[in-house]
Amino acid sequence: MTNIKQTGTQDWPPIPEELQSICLDSDDDQYSRFQSNYFQVGHPALIFVAKTEAHVSEVIMYVAQLQRLAKDAVPFSIKSGGHGLTKQSINQNGVILDLSQMNRVTVLDAEKGIFETQCGAVWGDVAAKIGQSGLILSSGDFGDTGVGGLATAGGIGLLVRKQGLTIDRIISATVITGDGNRHVVSEEHEPDLFWALRGGSSQIGVVTNFVFQADAVPQTAQGVSVPIMYQKISYDLKDLWQFLRHWQQWLANCDYDLSSLLMITKQEGGNPLAATATNVWIGESTDKMKTLLRASKNLEQVVEYEWQQMSYADLVKAPHLDNKGDQDAYVKNVLVDQLDAEIVLKLAKLIALDSVMGLEVRAIDGAINMRAINFNAWAHRQAKFFIAVWCDPTMSDDLNQQFKALHLENLGVYGAYSSDISQAETKRVWPSETGRRLHQIAKQYDPNQIFNQSRRI
Ligand SMILES: Cc1cc2nc3c(=O)[nH]c(=O)nc-3n(C[C@H](O)[C@H](O)[C@H](O)COP(=O)(O)OP(=O)(O)OC[C@H]3O[C@@H](n4cnc5c(N)ncnc54)[C@H](O)[C@@H]3O)c2cc1C
């Protein structure tokens, strides 16, 4: 980042001096480190690798000018951890604002469970840092997923039944809006903006810092900090509906200390489907917990089984893999308030498609349902199950077509877990009143639609 950059392409305005030191183009050695996200390789004209909020603000103002002056539309992507399933955090021929270097995590008040994190941190590192103070927060279950994308969209993590969405635990945030202005927002200060950035994604602005309320978990007598009981159990499925029925009956006996997610995949020979359950219980192991976890062995024929007490931070440890754009996939999801035989029949048809790699089913009843319907810009408080289908990205039309049968009965869609960026899907993410309110707020804070690489209502 040493050469003086004149412009990105011919008709673009000169790059301001303040941004010279953080600007990369394809001639820079460092360009390849920042050009891709998890799924795809980008070829932007310029990448700005921000280190401060002032940089973020300057970049936004530069891009605003650029979008006014350039002949053609200039895509502007916001990238934190680069794991966004919409894949819009990179682009071709536009500008990427990379926030990965703004990754500080600080415990502000361990006793009250309050910590702050910059948007470029990854969730595995957040868990490790706050774990040192005995704190835990449900977030992404893969340690390399970024704070910025997840904490502006939702956050369905391994402790979701107990703690709810990650965004439900934000108590204040700093956002730079489309005019380059910095706002520190909370329930008391600019509550509309605070409401919108918790679920509204980047159509409102770039959120640089989040303050969270976590929970404290006492360490075990053996000294395991932030203990959880982790159970992984694989089943051979004779019948998908019978299995999911048994799983739901089992869950109904478990209180919200236990969260459960299923990954259902195809298998060769024998029964066509297999399932792996990841069950996580927060806290020291108890007799009640052991009885519940043992009962999960009775849901179907068990193929593999393990459980162990461990620290939450170890479970979601970040591998810090470089984003090389080589993990492409296409994902669709639905949020439903019940999982009955009719829906499961449709799921069975979906998973039989050649294009489909696997089906994820997560129980999300509990804390999510206890918040007011308009608590933040997450529109689906009644949802009790989250169902996602991963498919071959070259066959996404096939999945979109077959998925129509499911949309008839679903409550909505979790935006950050869907690769479908159509307007119809966006309306399913933010339907009715949530959509109207979000639209008004986005119009106020980004009237010129600078943030054009984002789901936008
Ligand atoms: C392997 C894998 C596992 C996952 N597991 C989970 C899971 O368990 N639970 C879950 O809820 N989700 C999960 N996800 C989905 C993922 O959390 C979301 O897609 C999230 O958006 C990723 O955030 P990011 O910062 O890594 O993404 P990025 O690609 O950097 O950003 C995604 C989008 O978010 C917006 N954005 C990014 N940073 C900011 C910011 N600072 N301010 C405003 N907007 C911003 C932009 O619109 C951007 O296009 C998973 C994804 C993958 C690939």
TrEMBL record:
Keyword field: FAD, Flavoprotein, Oxidoreductase
Keyword Oxidoreductase among UniProt keywords: yes
Domain FAD-binding PCMH-type residue range list: 40-217
Domain of life: Bacteria
Keyword Oxidoreductase part of the UniProt annotation: yes
Transmembrane regions: none
Cofactors demanded by this protein: FAD
GO molecular function term, any single one: oxidoreductase activity
Family to which the UniProt record says this protein belongs: Belongs to the oxygen-dependent FAD-linked oxidoreductase family.
Name listed for the protein in its UniProt record: FAD-dependent oxidoreductase
PANTHER family: BINDING OXIDOREDUCTASE, PUTATIVE (AFU_ORTHOLOGUE AFUA_1G17690)-RELATED, FAD-BINDING PCMH-TYPE DOMAIN-CONTAINING PROTEIN
